[in-house]
């Protein structure tokens, strides 16, 4: 299977900038002070209920991968032990302020989700909201592999993100907004990663559109070690 499919071709034809980790770091370091204000309309109009859904039924030790300014913090399950990681120290500083405001203890760390310094099978639940849209295809696979490594067998990985609409009008609108989205958020609306599950040692256990056919929650479970080995052999 190739990781150079439609988004790669679309990017080249539009002359859009590449999604790189360095560009992502610079973008979020720059926009951290503006992020909450820029997001506020979307938060109020549609994102808040999705954040609640993302944590539904999770507990124990949870990772918020790409925690940003901590917009998920108000929805962390009571009693859960939560770790939040992000590339950008400035985004994390806003998350720390939000955690304090909500009286939540969250361990916040500057880390790349492609290489997370925790032991194997560490978390009961992992969530990632609007982070995979900032990763290149290769990095989405690398990130999924890392999340698979650190999730307990029987644990859940939930990813909330965009998906390019199949409806002609919405697809056209998303394609028109793509250059702005790249420039402002170092992100793409063409976020595909579910097909990487077997290569990452995961099973896709659920995939639900939560806004139209362009925002969805994908849920994965780590494959048991024996199935993981045969998945690697066949990929
Ligand atoms: C669009 S923001 C989303 C933030 C937050 N999850 C939310 O829902 O508001 C994307 C975040 O992912 C972080 N990020 C992007 N690539 C990352 C990586 N490789 N490792 C860790 N964090 C990353 C960025 O620094 C940024 O804070």
Largest β-sheet summary: 7 strands, mixed
Over all CA atoms, what is the radius of gyration?
Answer: 17 Å
Mean pLDDT across every amino acid position: 92
Which ligands appear in the coordinates?
S-adenosylmethionine
What is the H-and-E element order? HHEEHEEHEHHEEH
What would you note in describing this structure?
The model is unreliable at 1-7 (pLDDT under 50). The protein is of the alpha/beta class. The longest helix has 34 residues, at 21-54. It has one domain: Vaccinia Virus protein VP39 (Rossmann fold, 3-Layer(aba) Sandwich). The protein has helices at residues 6-14, 21-54, 89-101, 137-150, 168-185, 197-200, 225-234, and strands at residues 61-65, 81-86, 106-110, 123-129, 151-162, 202-211, 215-222. Helix 2 (21-54) packs parallel to helix 3 (89-101). It has a seven-stranded mixed sheet, with helices on both faces. S-adenosylmethionine binds next to helix 2 and strand 2.
Key descriptive features of the protein:
Rossmann fold, binds S-adenosylmethionine, alpha/beta, 235 residues, seven-stranded mixed beta sheet, disordered N terminus
Overview in brief:
The chain is of the alpha/beta class and 235 residues long. The protein has helices at 6-14, 21-54, 89-101, 137-150, 168-185, 197-200, 225-234, and strands at 61-65, 81-86, 106-110, 123-129, 151-162, 202-211, 215-222.
Question: What is the strand and helix layout of this fold?
Answer:
Elements: H1 6-14, H2 21-54, E1 61-65, E2 81-86, H3 89-101, E3 106-110, E4 123-129, H4 137-150, E5 151-162, H5 168-185, H6 197-200, E6 202-211, E7 215-222, H7 225-234
Parallel strand pairs: 1-2, 1-4, 2-3, 4-5
Antiparallel strand pairs: 5-7, 6-7
Helix pairs in contact: 2-3
Bound molecules: S-adenosylmethionine (SAM).
């Amino acid at each position: 299977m190739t990781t150079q499919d439609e988004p790669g071709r679309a990017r080249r034809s539009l002359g859009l900038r590449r999604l790189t980790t360095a560009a992502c770091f610079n973008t979020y370091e720059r926009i951290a002070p503006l992020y909450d204000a820029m997001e506020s309309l979307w938060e109020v109009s549609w994102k808040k209920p999705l954040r609640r859904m993302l944590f539904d039924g999770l507990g124990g030790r949870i990772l918020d991968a790409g925690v940003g300014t901590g917009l998920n913090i108000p929805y962390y399950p009571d009693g859960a032990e939560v770790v939040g990681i992000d590339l950008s120290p400035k985004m994390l500083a806003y998350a720390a302020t939000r955690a304090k405001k909500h009286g939540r203890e969250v361990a916040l760390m500057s880390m790349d989700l492609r290489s997370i310094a925790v032991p194997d099978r560490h978390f009961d639940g992992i969530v990632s909201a609007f982070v995979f849209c900032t990763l290149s295809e290769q990095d989405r696979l690398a990130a999924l592999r890392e999340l698979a490594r650190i999730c307990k067998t029987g644990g859940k990985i939930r990813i909330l993100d965009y998906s390019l609409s199949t409806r002609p009008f919405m697809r056209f609108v998303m394609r028109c907004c793509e250059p702005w989205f790249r420039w402002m958020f170092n992100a793409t609306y063409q976020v595909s990663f579910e097909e990487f599950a077997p290569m990452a040692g995961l099973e896709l256990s659920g995939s639900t559109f939560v806004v139209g056919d362009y925002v969805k929650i994908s849920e994965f479970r780590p494959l048991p070690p024996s199935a993981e080995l045969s998945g690697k052999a066949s990929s």
